Amino acid sequence: AGRAPALHCPADGVSQVTVRDALNQGLDEELERDERVFLLGEEVAQYDGAYKISRGLWKKYGDKRVIDTPISEMGFTGIAVGAAMAGLRPVCEFMTFNFSMQAIDQVINSAAKTCYMSAGSIAVPIVFRGPNGASAGVAAQHSQCFAAWYGHCPGLKVVSPWSSEDAKGLLKASIRDDNPVVMLENELLYGVPFEMSEQAQSKDFVVPIGKAKIERQGSHVTLVSHSRPVGHCLEAAAVLAKEGVECEVINLRTIRPMDIETVEASVVKTNHLVTVEGGWPQFGVGAEICARIMEGSAFNYLDAPAVRVTGADVPMPYAKILEDNCIPQVKDIIFAVKKTLNI
Amino acid sequence: QEFPSPEEKPQFPGASAEFAERLEFIQPNVISGIPVYRVMDRQGHILSPSEDPQLPKEQVVKLYRTMTLLNTMDRILYESQRQGRISFYMTNYGEEGTHVGSAAALDDTDLVFGQYREAAVGAAYAIKRADANRAVICYFGEGAASEGDAHAGFNFAATLECPIVFFCRNNGYAISTPTSEQYRGDGIAARGPGYGLMSIRVDGNDVFAVYNATKEARRRAVAENQPFLIEAMTY
């Protein structure tokens, strides 16, 4: 595949790299590094990927490493899990995670539970990846967020990148991890460029699974988010800064195992907590964060109840005006911050 | 008790067949597969008068008008998608005959499922129990036939004896995946007998062939409470 062309700031090796290109680089590097790694899924080979994430990889690595499958998630997921049990390291792509529901028995029962059920003797070093959550105008059956569903299950690791650095680093870490990892990407982020340092662009750059990142320091309120809403949180923080409210924005990066310690340390500092996610409110990522904060040392430092900003509790509508209002917007985050700060 | 003679039939509950004394594998017949039923030749002439559905002129004009309308609608909506005004659109170019020919053969009260193979079977089962003169038709592509749902749908339709017509549009590609990578058997029609389904392959570009096959399949599905599989070849 080669390096995608990138705009250069020549001084310090920093480049603008889209999430798509970062994922492509990550896949290319890991395919090169370990011959047991292979990619399978619908349209991943000759079509360069339904979203062009695997552009050029089939041409470079051939039929044995990049495999187009028939349309049967249950089928190819099961096959990938079997291959992982027998010593290969598959990357199993779902065109969107909505289609993973066709294969959920394979993901949970065959992949997630096998290490435990075999008393540690059978590893399943597989990565399930693909776009998750809302896109634009793809309606109810193609817009669901699966962070809570997969985050619920012991035996899985679940990561949710936001920036290009997150995407590439977490993908590489996931492929190198001997456990089944679910990587929840976001279609709307694929074309978004982010700055990547020279170090982040190197072949050994890995973002550790299970560690959150503080994207913006602040002292008045903690905003915790994952995936695309992290960008919305930063936008809200910029608006609020003009009013003298400094938000600390935490990018979870990993859903499971969740880095609650970083959130706790932040809440101890700011005394206020707002969680932001694209998924539905009930039994969601925000609900889990609130429960853990209550159970831990940071509870006594809260000056107000934590507030969750989530997707609306309805199947995603098709009409654009309705869809726009079912996804957390910057104004919703600002409203929640002001509510918890009582301003 | 009489013992069976040496010429007896196997007594296995799983299949009803004769014994064979020679080791021979059944070869999947993909070189000359199931034939393609057509009514018209490439120039549109009716080949065999007995197969002419003899539809009244207004109905034939309506078929043509509807296919042209669909084609026009496709152009408008496809361009809307390219302009970013709608999010997703898949055109029917070349396949108009499959939709219009089959739809023309249905009754007004029949149920149409655009996907959802097993749900269609469930609906057919409910209709059968209600004992109305209604059928279910379920449309899907040759790619979607790879989903486990299709297997379950076919099997349940046969075992539950449902008045359903499975209509598969085989246009050679699923997005970019060609049929050579989707399956290695003789298309979808060849799977039908494996499930106990009455099956036929038709020329999907021949609206009269599609009409005839769907009309007869529907009639018998309701009359005999059994599922039918039609594979319409097109591009």
UniProtKB/TrEMBL annotation, chain A:
Do you know which InterPro entries this protein is assigned to? PDHB_mito-type, THDP-binding, Transketo_C/PFOR_II, Transketolase-like_Pyr-bd, Transketolase_C
Q: What highest taxon heads this organism's lineage?
A: Eukaryota
Q: What class of enzyme is it?
A: oxidoreductase
Keyword annotations for this protein, in alphabetical order, are: Carbohydrate metabolism, Glucose metabolism, Metal-binding, Mitochondrion, Oxidoreductase, Potassium, Pyruvate, Thiamine pyrophosphate, Transit peptide
Q: Which GO terms describe its molecular function?
A: metal ion binding; pyruvate dehydrogenase (acetyl-transferring) activity
| GO biological process assignments | glucose metabolic process; pyruvate decarboxylation to acetyl-CoA
User: Which Pfam families does the entry link to?
Assistant: Transket_pyr, Transketolase_C
Q: What does this protein do?
A: The pyruvate dehydrogenase complex catalyzes the overall conversion of pyruvate to acetyl-CoA and CO(2), and thereby links the glycolytic pathway to the tricarboxylic cycle.
The entry's protein name is Pyruvate dehydrogenase E1 component subunit beta
**Source organism per UniProt:** Cepphus grylle
Tell me the gene name: Pdhb
Automatic annotation (TrEMBL), chain B:
Q: Which cofactor does it need?
A: thiamine diphosphate
Q: Which residues form the Dehydrogenase E1 component domain?
A: 64-120, 122-235
- Give the EC number(s) listed in the UniProt record: 1.2.4.4
- Would the keyword Membrane turn up in this protein's UniProt record? no
Q: Which CDD domains match?
A: TPP_E1_PDC_ADC_BCADC
> InterPro entries from the xrefs?
Alpha-ketoacid_DH_E1_comp, DH_E1, THDP-binding
- Domain of life assignment: Eukaryota
Q: Which UniProt keywords apply?
A: Oxidoreductase, Thiamine pyrophosphate, Transit peptide
What molecular functions are annotated in GO for this chain? Answer: branched-chain 2-oxo acid dehydrogenase activity
Which Gene Ontology biological process is one annotated for this entry? branched-chain amino acid catabolic process
Record Gene3D superfamilies: 3.40.50.970
Which reaction(s) does the protein catalyse, per the Swiss-Prot or TrEMBL entry?
N(6)-[(R)-lipoyl]-L-lysyl-[protein] + 3-methyl-2-oxobutanoate + H(+) = N(6)-[(R)-S(8)-2-methylpropanoyldihydrolipoyl]-L-lysyl-[protein] + CO2
Task: State if Transit peptide is listed as a keyword.
Answer: yes
Q: Name the Pfam families for this protein.
A: E1_dh
**Which PANTHER family does this chain map to?**
2-OXOISOVALERATE DEHYDROGENASE SUBUNIT ALPHA, MITOCHONDRIAL (PTHR43380:SF1)
Quaternary structure annotation from Swiss-Prot or TrEMBL: Heterotetramer of 2 alpha/BCKDHA and 2 beta chains/BCKDHB that forms the branched-chain alpha-keto acid decarboxylase (E1) component of the BCKD complex. The branched-chain alpha-ketoacid dehydrogenase is a large complex composed of three major building blocks E1, E2 and E3. It is organized around E2, a 24-meric cubic core composed of DBT, to which are associated 6 to 12 copies of E1, and approximately 6 copies of the dehydrogenase E3, a DLD dimer. Interacts with PPM1K.
Q: Which family does it belong to?
A: Belongs to the BCKDHA family.
- Function as written in the Swiss-Prot or TrEMBL entry: Together with BCKDHB forms the heterotetrameric E1 subunit of the mitochondrial branched-chain alpha-ketoacid dehydrogenase (BCKD) complex. The BCKD complex catalyzes the multi-step oxidative decarboxylation of alpha-ketoacids derived from the branched-chain amino-acids valine, leucine and isoleucine producing CO2 and acyl-CoA which is subsequently utilized to produce energy. The E1 subunit catalyzes the first step with the decarboxylation of the alpha-ketoacid forming an enzyme-product intermediate.
What name is this protein filed under? 2-oxoisovalerate dehydrogenase subunit alpha
Species for this entry: Cepphus grylle (Black guillemot)
What is the organism lineage in this UniProt record? Eukaryota, Metazoa, Chordata, Craniata, Vertebrata
